[in-house]
From TrEMBL, chains A, B:
Residues 51-86, 120-155 form the EF-hand domain. Coiled coil: none annotated. The lineage of its organism: Eukaryota, Viridiplantae, Streptophyta, Embryophyta, Tracheophyta. InterPro entries: CML48/49/50, EF-hand-dom_pair, EF_Hand_1_Ca_BS, EF_hand_dom. This is Calcium-binding protein CML48. SMART domains: EFh. Keywords: Calcium. The keyword Calcium applies. It comes from the Eukaryota. SUPFAM superfamilies: EF-hand. PANTHER family: CALCIUM-BINDING PROTEIN CML48-RELATED. CDD domains: EFh_PEF_Group_I.
């Protein structure tokens, strides 16, 4: 079958809100987070969950130049570079914002809670990338990508792997190598779509019966996030 | 149910090759067109199907500056502007190339046969757009988009329509209007995904049972086309 129900090792979790926004359909736009008041940070970071690492708070506050309490696209890029994630493509930044934004917020921006979830997720994808970037070149070839997905319990069809990798082909036809940015993007897409599928295949049979509405609602968010 | 099996009126057809490339999975990269030799054009246009309108041939040949017999991304943009389709976004150009390219060709480029198919498809989407752009403003609002899809037999979930339209929201929250470019993109995505779904729902029940492999193989092409 296409994936197992063994959850060790597993890919980093998607935000609760992303699962919810897909599940509650029409109510997506009315979803609101339950913020936990923080005891340990300055008033400007009162929205951060308790025990958020100070470095995460610092990267957020340094990047939030207009002190809006939210990060827009360019502010998020700044915050991530403060955190050692330089050179993440606009495409990936937008995709991350789309997945991690509060669905109750009509603007494409991240608040503290969403940023912490994103930050933790990136750290986990980073450690997976480093595990498979065996020669420490900062690049992962297609074999390593296949291995990484396999060990995350994603047995992807060859065609799907070919298509994902083909995005990063420079046209020379030589062996394509993925940087962390590309790996992150592939991983989030595969993880996201697989989670959607698993919701409809609770018995892990490898098959799911979907209505047209559910099918379209599951997929369109992944496509439109590339605005 | 989500869509009817009445085919009048219907959305412009996707290229045969796009349906085939999805169906034959692993063989996608080995798919090859059966070109029909043309009797009526110069040797440089021998690859054009018979009865291709001379304007189409002219727009192709004028844009194919390096006489390669193929249009790359910028050449296609040029060819389309010769044909009255100015200002089509890079994103849409890439999406069109991805859908209309010969899957047997590892490069993202269009030959004469693929260009003719694309050209005919654009003409049909254009006439649909004009029908719903009632005030001839060159813009279509979300209500008109919903009507257009409805009359094309696509009963889309509200969430899906909201998400598609939200791509074109400038953030002011005012009524979003779609230009032809945006309408074309929405239409191609909805048409493409619905065709994929219908292949798995031959009885038009509105439900389809998909394996994980099929599910992923159906969707990834729509996502990766936005490289």
């Amino acid at each position: 079958m296409a994936y197992s129900n063994a959850y060790e090792p597993s890919a980093p979790e998607l935000p609760e809100s992303f699962v919810e926004q897909q599940l509650d359909g029409e109510n997506r736009y009315h979803y609101a987070y339950q913020y936990q008041p923080s005891q340990q940070f300055s008033s400007s970071s009162v929205m951060f969950p308790p025990e958020t690492h100070p470095d995460i708070v610092r990267s957020f506050e340094s990047a939030d130049r207009d002190r809006s309490g939210f990060l827009d696209e360019s502010e998020l890029r700044q915050a991530l570079s403060f955190s050692g994630y330089e050179g993440i493509s606009n495409r990936t930044i937008r995709f991350l914002m789309f997945i991690y934004k509060n669905p109750g917020d009509s603007l494409l921006r991240l608040g503290p809670k969403e940023y912490v979830e994103l930050w933790n997720c990136l750290a986990q994808w980073r450690s997976i990338f480093d595990r498979y970037d065996r020669d420490r070149s900062g690049k992962m070839n297609s074999t390593a990508l296949r291995d990484a997905f396999f060990h995350l319990d994603y047995m992807l069809p060859t065609l799907v792997l070919q298509l994902m990798i083909s995005q990063f082909d420079d046209g020379t036809g030589k062996n394509v190598e993925l940087c962390f940015d590309s790996f992150l993007e592939c991983g989030m897409i595969v993880k996201g779509l697989t989670e959607k599928f698993k919701e409809k295949d609770p018995g892990y049979t490898g098959y799911a019966t979907l209505s047209y509405d559910v099918f379209m609602s599951m997929i369109i968010p992944f496509i439109v996030s590339y605005d």
